[in-house]
Amino acid sequence: MRTSWLSMLVGVLIAASSLSTQAADSVTVRLKWFNQAQFAGFYVAKEEGFYKAAGLDVAVQPGGPDFPSIQMVAGGNEQFGVSSADQILVARGKGVPVVALAVLYRKSPFVLFSLKSSGIDTPAKFAGKKIGVKVGGNEELVYRALLKKTGVSSKSLTEIPVKFDMTPLLTGQLDVWPGYLINEVIAAREKGFEVNIISPSDYGIDLYADTLFTTEAMVRDHPDLVRRFVAATLKGWTEAVAHPDEAARMTVMQDNKLTYAHEFAMMKESIPSLKPDAHAVGSMQMAGWQTLQTLLVDGGFLKAPIDLNKAFTTSFLAP
User: Helix, strand, coil: what percent of the chain each, to 5?
Assistant: First the structure.
């Protein structure tokens, strides 16, 4: 009788353990770029067990040119992604059913910068200079808006298409570089170069940047899963902002090519963009999306206004 009771108990425990294992929903989040502290909140959520506590088994996958997050998620094999807010609106303008769930970088860290020795510290000094332009993305959008806002004609300067290697700036082939406070500016300083920073936000151009998104189908068919993922992710980001040193340490664990010093600097530089005001990390407002859409339409990046009420939802954010 005792053996039978013990056997039943063991059976129940095994079944419960099996059920617990099966209960974890496996999902993937595709980042917009390679692993780095720009995405530290996701690493924190995973390493600290926030996803596991939410019943989620999350694969955090790096992005980049070969793995564009919007296409990967819209294709249906992955559930969540990170992209710039403008690209979400552009995608919807083309009929791609993606939906923004939370804005992570509410203040864009994108800037234009020059070597200190050049003396170029305002757009007014761009005339006659060679300006690097990252064509086709949010960097060009902000750059064009900055020229328009400050009354600088693109005809007064020389625009040169660039990608990611900023050697042309450091060797004097270009005068101004389009980059990020959280990355290229740090890299330039690490190489011993002092720089002048021209921040679009100083001229009233302050746009949403990195944004967490999913598809309309996920929102419609799996709202509880989406809610759990968003809550755990934002908990990770909130912890990253509060403890940038630990966030940098967890970032370095993702790739042995990363260094703590660089990732810690990136994390600290990211905080003003992640939490630029009293609102919670991840929050977003209609006004921010409207401002972005206006610039996209005016700049020709979006053919016509879209229904913003379908482009983003705050229903998965904490009240």
Answer: 50, 15, 35
How buried is 289 (Cβ within 10 angstroms: 0-12 exposed, 13-18 middle, 19+ buried)? buried
Distance, CA of 105 to CA of 236 (rounded, Å): 14
pTM for this model (two decimals): 0.91
Q: How do strand 177-180 and strand 130-133 relate by DSSP bridges?
A: unpaired
Q: Can you state the angle between helices 138-150 and 286-298, rounded to 10 degrees?
A: 80
* Nearest to 241, CA basis, from 32, 37, 54, 83: 37
Specify the 3-state DSSP secondary structure of 214: strand
Task: Note the pLDDT tens digit of each residue in 72-103.
Answer: 999 999 999 999 999 999 999 999 999 999 99
Contact between 310 and 266 (Cβ < 8 Å) = no
* Rounded distance between C-alpha atoms, residue 233 and residue 88, angstroms: 19
Q: If pLDDT is split at 50, 70 and 90, which confidence band does 22 have?
A: low
For 259, other C-beta atoms within 10 Å of its C-beta total 12
Give the whole-angstrom CA distance, residue 129 versus residue 301. 25
Bridge partners, 303 (sequence order): none
Residue 57, phi-psi category: left (phi > 0), alpha (psi -120 to 50), beta (remainder): beta
Alpha-carbon gap, residue 128 to 70, rounded angstroms: 38
Which pairing describes strands 25-30 and 80-84: parallel, antiparallel, or unpaired?
parallel
Please tell me whether residue 235 adopts helix, strand or coil conformation: helix
Residues 143-200: pLDDT tens digits?
999 999 999 999 999 999 999 999 999 999 999 999 999 999 999 999 999 999 999 9
pLDDT at res. 23: 76
Q: Which of 181, 177, 173 is nearest to 120 (CA)?
A: 177
Q: Which one-letter amino acid corresponds to residue 231? A: A
Residue type present at position 307 = D
The CA dihedral of 235, 237, 241, 242, to the nearest 10 degrees, is 20
What is the residue type of 62?
A: P
